[in-house]
Amino acid sequence: MNNKINTLIILSILFATLTIQFLFGSGMGLIVSILHLLALGITIITYKQAGKWDIKKNFGILIALILISFTYIFRDQQALQILNIFVFYGLLSTYHISMLQTSKLIIDNTLIIKLLEQFVMPFGDFPVPYIHIGKHLKFKKIKELNPKSKQILLGVLIALPILMIFTLLLASADDIFRNFISIDLSFLENIDEELIPKIIIWFLTATYIFGHFYYLLYKDKNTETNKDVIIKEKKDVDIVVSTILTLVNTLFIIFVFIQFRYLFSNNILAGMTFSSYARKGFFELVIISIIVVIMTLIINSLSKKKINLLLLTLMSLNTMVIAYSAIFRMNLYIEAYGYTWLRIVSQSFTVLQILIMIITCIHLWKHLNIRVIIAGIYLFSYILLNFVNMDSIIISGNMDRYLNGKEIDVYYYNNMSADATETLIQYRDDFKDRPEHLAVYHDLENVLNEKAYYFKEDTLINYNYSRNKAFDLMLIEHEQ
What we know:
Number of strands: 0
Strand content: under 5%
Structural class: mainly alpha
Helix content: over 70%
Radius of gyration: 28 Å
Number of helices: 20
Order of helices and strands: HHHHHHHHHHHHHHHHHHHH
Low-confidence stretches: 223-233
């Protein structure tokens, strides 16, 4: 079994490395063919090792997978190339199912359920490769450690890449934090700016690919026969989880202390300006809040020990402060440069993340149906975003800034939709007879004239309320 697990870890690492090359490369082509063939190769190798491989079984699907893999070399139709990615992995998952069952493959409702199970269930096996690596370290001194010490060491090993990602994000977001922990990030100037996303995606991809094949081939799903083993492993996981959470919370507490000491109190170090210090780091801190929510849900499914629930709660509370720091920074940025669609949506998303973290904290102690609640919140927010007149909010916010003495970029409104027309007309009319705002009046007039050129009345089949209202308003303007 150990050799099989080791082989799967190596293949997962190779697949993750090629995935990064594809995602951050210059386009599709040979790299996608290699990636598809590698996925097929991993299937053949691991299924052979598990004694589940039969080349004669559903040979047609195998040929189809190979042919789809080679299309990226011979043709360049982008729509088909993207569609083929989904088709390939859908077929590959179906091929997995056919290898695992003794009967013939039947296309029915149960097939869809099995495909969904194949996609979702591997998430529960994320810790397995790291636990396996930790248990089979070949160092003599480590072997001599007692079981508890080994689990603490394993927790430290698992925490190291997590801490590295969090530390880089926090140091990039906050100059004082970077100086406090004496990290010199000048080396990043010569490194790909996509380094952190690459590291995160690499770890997630390698871990998921391992979990996918491990769940299908090696995981014993008979809980009754493995009850004693599960209890023992749960105790081991409790210690590992406690170690990881303690290290992450220590890092977060240091960062939170710096936020209260310097950012929130408007008190910075000599040689820094508050504007340059505060107006950065928003997106790094939002990424951290997303990672923490995912971590909390995964870890909570692995360990219910009270100390770990307390540590998870502390991590969530620290992350709420980190998220508030992101909001605080974005508010300063908006105050200086004005409202845009991306800034408002980003700000709203961060508030949403804080709400989700509050609900997650409650779930740790009250056991809510957290996945359904989170999905419902995201869905409700997304639908709300579609019905809110965001352009009107942006214009009103920027006009309030202008009336309070701030600069305004009126020509940003040229890129706005028909939703903006009514609000633009209202402000233009307000400024019409006010000499001190005459320049902005003419700017708004030019924007409206530019937009009027593109407006036309929709046919019934293409009817859109905002476009037709804008057309009617501009028609009235023309008649006057």
